[in-house]
Design brief:
Layout lengths: L1 E2 L1 E14 L17 E11 L4 E11 L4 E5 L1 H4 L1 E5 L4 E11 L2
Antiparallel strand pairs: 1-2, 2-3, 3-4, 4-7, 5-6
Length: 98
């Protein structure tokens, strides 16, 4: 989709919501996912006939992330939550036509 100037190409924004983690799964501290909400957009610039540069940004909200794991005698108990459970994803791309 062209937007204002023929060398700029706008990528439309997107929204996605993934359901909550199934109750039978335990959240781990290395990947504390609950429900996920993603918002993203991007932009591309046609540098010339053969090269296009672009970038994108996505904000991801990963939910509450409460952890309650029983680890046994050697591991113990791990309980807690993450106050902020968000991700910011930035991507850059280069398209080279030859």
């Amino acid at each position: 989709m062209s937007w204002g100037h023929p060398t700029w190409v706008r990528l439309p924004p997107g929204v996605e919501r993934l359901p909550e983690t199934p109750p039978w799964r335990c959240l781990t501290p290395d990947m504390p996912l609950d429900r996920q909400i993603r918002l993203g957009t991007g932009l591309q610039y046609n540098w010339n006939q053969n090269v296009t540069l672009g970038g994108a940004y996505t904000y991801v909200n990963l939910g509450d992330a409460k952890i309650d794991r029983q680890g046994g005698a050697l591991q113990g108990v791990l309980k807690g939550d993450y106050k902020t459970n968000d991700m910011h994803v930035v991507a850059l791309n280069l398209i080279w036509r030859f």
